[in-house]
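Quick question, first post here. What does this chain look like in 3D?
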Amino acid sequence: MTRPSYRPSQALARTALLLSLALPTTTSAKAVDPAVGDYDAGGVDSVVRLRLDADGSFAFALMAGSLDQQARGRWERRGDTIHFFSVPRPVPPVVEPGPITQRADGPFEIRVVGPGGNDLAGIDFSISFDRGDALTAYSPGGPWAFPADEHRQPRSISFVMPQYGLNTTGLPLTGKAGTTATFVLRPNDFGTIDFTGSTATVTATEMTLCGEGLGGRESGCHDFRRIEP
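> Answer (accepted):
Ran it through. Tokens below.
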């Protein structure tokens, strides 16, 4: 079974950004920083583009399977290193407790919904218990039923997706049979990653970009190829 993924309305903006990054960079006749240009780190099943403009702005977009990311802001050179700053700083998504509803019978259920009450698919969560290891799962796009063979007492639930900046932890959870606990995702700038603190080194043909959250990693570096105009 293919895992569902959550793609908010901002996905359209990322598509438009990728299209804009396909256009060649234009520069003025005056001398510009040699780092200015377009860079690509895509593969067979991914599109990853980064542009550094002569006016000190940058744009980044990534589409790889269920993962969509974008970023915009400014860059500046400090010696041999390029430093990035997201402008404005993105507001990360959060999950808030919603209502707990009573049903006639059946197992304990969890729903993850958007601000309008629509069920969301592909939101990771982890349930902590009174003992033992946590249980990890994701929202299926409707009610998620508590496993029939799980007899431990739930204590809390966390929603953590580092690739999107989601980090809501320790929400109380009782897990009473016959009830449905609803949690509301506030998307904010879901999918817009914070480039502030990311750095890069550039050669005539390549760029190595290092930072947190890029490509779904908590931290790490990515190699980009310079695209010739």
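The CA atoms of residues 18 and 89 lie 20 Å apart.
The chain has two domains: 10-91+191-227, 94-186.
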